[in-house]
Design brief:
Length: 236
């Protein structure tokens, strides 16, 4: 882990510690949700392009309301990322049939902002821990381990929108992007013999994530918003 990665790691922990007291204050009002969906992913810097690598994403999330419009909380997600050469890249451009499979445990910390009714905007930071990395470079050997090519830690920013399609069932779309390269080797060593196209000098996970989330425990979101206590009437 380099100096910049260590800084982001400490920043992520500091944000969590700073927010915990506020979460405790609102601990009587929280909602837990089950999350299930799909990633469309690519790796910026691998010489390919397009969100052609699908992957499962699933996990749990918690939200603590801090105002009538804002709620915050952590998530823990199993997330399948990677990249894949498209059919056009293979057949028309002569790319080898390259597929990267990267499996992560992601720990996003997210803030939701209620725009109106059942429409929410969300933003946050996510720390990812690489479980394993595999590569199929188009040969007959199939997938081989390439854990040494990738850093164990991944730091991403995320932005998204969420819409309540049914009572306490939410459809969410997110964009997630690595802020630090996940490539643990010299890029030319990695790309040599595969694609070798110009790149920005690193590996950056680039995701479009679509999920459904359902209320699982705690107070439903619309019931968990703190409300002002009614003021007693003045005595006559």
């Amino acid at each position: 882990m380099n100096r910049y990665q260590r800084f982001l790691h400490r920043l992520f922990i500091a944000v969590i510690i700073f927010i915990i007291p506020e979460m405790k204050i609102q601990s009587q009002n929280f909602s837990g949700r089950l999350i299930l969906g799909i990633n469309g992913s690519q790796i910026d810097g691998d010489g390919m392009s397009g969100y052609y690598k699908p992957g499962l994403v699933s996990g749990l999330g918690v939200r603590f309301p801090i105002s009538e419009k804002i709620s915050i909380g952590p998530e823990i997600m199993y997330s399948m990322k990677g990249s894949k050469a498209s059919f056009e890249q293979v057949t028309e451009l002569g790319f080898p049939r390259i597929i990267y499979r990267l499996n992560y445990i992601d720990l996003p910390f997210v803030a939701d902002y209620r725009i109106s009714g059942g429409i929410l905007a969300e933003a946050g930071l996510s720390y990812g821990r690489l479980l394993n990395a595999k590569l199929d470079n188009g040969t007959n050997f199939g997938f081989v381990d390439r854990n040494e090519w990738f850093n164990k830690s991944d730091f991403q920013v995320l932005f998204g929108l969420k819409y309540e399609i049914f009572d306490n069932i939410w459809l969410s779309g997110r964009f997630m992007y690595s802020v630090v390269s996940t490539n643990a080797m010299g890029l030319q060593e990695v790309n040599f013999g595969l694609v070798g196209l110009p790149s920005r000098g690193g590996f950056f996970n680039n995701l479009l994530q679509f999920t459904l989330s359902a209320h699982l425990f705690g107070s439903p979101p619309e019931k968990g918003v703190p409300k002002k206590e009614p003021q007693p009437l003045p005595k006559m």
